[in-house]
Amino acid sequence: MKPTTKEDIDPFEEIIEGVKHAKGVKQDTELDVDDLKTLVEKYKVAVKAKTGKDFPQEPQQQLWRAIQAVFDSWNNDRAKYYRILNKIPEDWGTAVNVQAMVFGNMGNTSATGVGFTRDASTGENIFNGEYLINAQGEDVVAGIRTPQQITLIGSKRWAELQGVPEDVRKNQFPSLEESLPETYQELKNVQEKLEQHFKDMQDIEFTIQNGKLWLLQCRNGKRTGAAMVQIACDLLREGKIDEKTALKRIEPNKLDELLHPIFTPEALKTAKFVAKGLPASPGAASGQIVFFADEAKKFAQSILVRIETSPEDLEGMNIARGILTARGGMTSHAAVVARGMGKCCVCGAGSLNINYKQRTLEVNGKVYAEGDWISLNGSTGDVFEGKLKTQEAQLSGDFGLIMDWAEKYTRMYVRTNADTPKDAQIARKFGAKGIGLTRTEHMFFEGERIKAMREMILASDLAGRQTALAKLLPFQRSDFEVTIRLLDPPLHEFVPHETAQQQELAQDMGLTLDQVKQKVHELAEFNPMLGHRGCRLGITYPEITEMQTRAIIEAALNIKAKGMDVKPEIMVPLVGNVNELEHQLKVVKKTAETVFQERKDTIHYLVGTMIEVPRACLVADQIGQIAEFFSFGTNDLTQMTLGFSRDDAGKFLPYYINNGILKVDPFQVLDRQGVGKMVELAVKNGKSTNPNLKVGICGEHGGEPSSVEFFHIVGLDYVSCSPFRVPIARVAAAIANLTYP
């Protein structure tokens, strides 16, 4: 056990370090029998001081206490957080397995280790892993002793990374292949057999007791996103699995790891090198140093720096941008957990001297304090001083192969939510088939646009609003090429609320400050989410809908004149009554016809609605008679169906999840039993009166794999998500089609 927070420092580590210091040794294995007896007595005293009870001496009592401890561990804070992180149901429970021990600490012909049939970081088809002579399994993963490599090639690679000369490596850090060659060969044969049987990369834990090999457990190994793609494609090329199996081996969310920035070559050229560790989990991260997991939130971007991590550090590891440890190898807790999270991590940087009490990191005479910036390269193991510039990751050919499979096996296609040309370009590169949501309001917040928008809002009559809208028209027209949602947020979001900005606006418009303040006061609402927004704005001020429709149609005609095919879809937001859509539909069609006559040209366009009000789901058969498409706004639909404010739910949702009231955050993972039923009902009702109705979803759930699966099951035509979620949604949609054809 290791210190996790400033209040929680385990006495055992402190005691054993004291015993070693008193004897003048560094390794646990250098303690003799008398030293261990001293250690036991000191620890018994510490246990009684902390618990008020003597350490039990009767074996049966020790066993039952150990069993109870395992059961109790299911409900500790760390386990609860792990379940939330990995979406493990609260009601699964845990089990205890009691079995005889084998011992890897019985001398120099005993050892313990962890092996992988392929590289868990890169996916390279090479047997690898770490071991320790005369040690127990916990010593390898806990990072207390820096382990040695199983294979000779792995040992030589490690030495090169660490700058260890070959003669030193061979004498002081020999591989298992060199130390116990016969046992190594047996282990190598076993790992080949296990991978051939399971047809996937295996994580193997083993112990060698007096020269005899024992396998403790075998499981499909955790891997990085890059390794996941590499291994799936290699197994296909090797003929061990087919294409569909390879695609189903892809965890969609882990593709996110491949899409994040790396350090730019220019930044690396001028970067000040600090230390070298092991490349435990790839990627790049810059942040301010924190030394305790429970303080990872202290800075907006933090790097968690530890001697070694433990399960108690889980939440802080998830919050931090990256993880740096002084001890531990590629199978240490920090390395395994970071890879599972897709978090940049550098382990075993032995030159670091970390002082928790003083909150400092010293290396080669230079001291770094809490809050100092450092940067980690998890792909090379390098640690740099300061904050380094990043660039987008370069995707491999195998990533393209995965996307080809996704295209081949999907039924439901993927669009993107994009408000800027850059967003659209990124999404197109990732294979998006269109734009499922463009939020027009985001275009009004820049420069001259916001001035014209405020002029429209503050105008006292129709003529004034039309004058201001005429100024907005060119801006809107230049932005549109695809699917667009008409203005949605309440008008008060566009006006200034600070007196200085109100004064500036008053001067620009020739108004008094009091007139501006009065208008801002009139626009204020008690519950803006349910207030004057969405289609209600277009009904109150049809000239807004007219301006936006004209901009969309004129932009589409301009694109057509350039010889390009354009298919605009106009979405009317927040409809809960068919009469609302009918009102806006008349305005849109009348305006479009006017533009067609002016331009002496036409284009095909669709008019539909966002389904985000529960009542719209119930009367979707009526709405479907006049709508040409539905796009589910699951963010607002979740708010209104559950009665949760998305902005305020964070105050109580953790308690709901911790107490089993909810299993997951419904704003992250679709609530199938509630919101999902509304979606399913709306699809069924809408298509009952309009079999050609196109249905999709443009809420945040469109990029979440389990939600994408549900949308496939209920028959949606597409999902739309943020640009960097497009590959994730594409793979999730294809896997859903293979699972539920």
UniProtKB/TrEMBL annotation:
Sorted UniProt keywords: ATP-binding, Kinase, Magnesium, Metal-binding, Nucleotide-binding, Transferase
Any GO MF annotation of the entry: pyruvate, phosphate dikinase activity
The PEP-utilising enzyme mobile domain, residue ranges: 301-381
Cofactor section: Mg(2+)
Domain PEP-utilising enzyme C-terminal: start-end pairs: 397-734
Domain of life: Eukaryota
Enzyme class: transferase
Domain Pyruvate phosphate dikinase AMP/ATP-binding residues, every copy: 27-237
Pfam families reported in the protein's UniProt record: PEP-utilizers (PF00391), PEP-utilizers_C (PF02896), PPDK_N (PF01326)
Documented EC number(s): 2.7.9.1
Family that this chain belongs to: Belongs to the PEP-utilizing enzyme family.
Protein name: pyruvate, phosphate dikinase
